[in-house]
Amino acid sequence: MNRAHARLTDRIEESGKDLISYLAQLTDEEIHRVPAPNEWSIHGVLAHLRDTEQHVFLKRTKRILGAAEPPSVENFDQEQWNRDHYSPEEPRKKIIGEFRRARRGVLQLLRKTTDKDWSRWAMHPEYGKISIEWLATHNYSHTLEHLHQLLEMREKALLKELNG
Fold first, then answer.
1. Residue 58, C-beta contacts closer than 8 angstroms, at least 6 positions apart
2. Residue 141 to residue 147: CA distance in whole angstroms
3. By three-state DSSP, how is residue 33 classified?
């Protein structure tokens, strides 16, 4: 694996650790607070991160690396998945454990790849050809996007409390 791919893999690992470290600082009240109608709580965002790690990033990476010919992959409708599977009562510890396991699975697969593997791809119904490199980059960006969202949600709630 070349240096750029190794750095990206390391950043995927670190972003997961950053997420878990940040979540450890939050109270249950902060985790479950819904910022506005029809918006997800931090708990909901965490469940989404776990679900996409398991059902998108890990599943697709395995599928692409395990196929002799480029496979097709399904679209992941996060809103429908959330309606069908999300439970606000699900323990935070369970969600974090499942996220960690799925993230470790992705990292193990990426660390075993060759430079040639990074260009292996699948056909996605919306995005077209998605390579291992595209998936890894998207995984990292997705984690950062939601980590930023969680930070912003918490800070807005704190400002609201301070301003009465």
1. 102, 105, 106, 109
2. 10
3. coil
Would you place residue 94 in the very low, low, confident or very high pLDDT band (cuts 50, 70, 90)?
very high
* SS3 category, 128: strand
| Helix%, strand%, coil% for the chain, nearest 5 | 70, 5, 25
CA gap 84, 55 in Å, rounded: 14
Please give the DSSP secondary-structure letter assigned to residue 72: B
Instruction: Please report where in the chains the tokens 């240096």 appear, as a residue.
Output: 3
pLDDT digits (tens, 9 = 90+) for 24-63: 999 999 999 998 899 999 999 999 999 999 999 999 999 9
Predicted TM-score (pTM) of the model is: 0.95
Does residue 134 contact residue 148 with C-beta atoms inside 8 Å? no
* Rounded (10°) angle between helices 132-162 and 59-66: 170
Query: Among 34, 51, 35, which Cα is nearest to 86's?
Result: 51
Q: Which domains does the chain have, with CATH numbers?
A: 3-162 (1.20.120.450)
